[in-house]
Amino acid sequence: MQQVGTVDHTPVYPREVVKRALELSATAVILVHNHPSGDPTPSRADIQMTQAILEMAKPLGVAVHDHIIVGKEGHASFKGLRLI
Q: Does the N-terminal or the C-terminal CB of the chain have fewer CB atoms within 10 Å?
């Protein structure tokens, strides 16, 4: 677990995500978070944050395999949606 938030917001700092991956000697990560609203559709902020992590991780040799959002109505995969 990287971060815990409130009902409608969790601060995510790409630098901290990549830092943790490097601490664990990870060569790849899968990002996962939930949408308490139930709708797993990625928000604009979700997409921008994921792109920021991708851009920061790639030069350091850490791949982002997927970003999955879980909601009451199912899940959304950034890879499946071709956002990664």
A: N
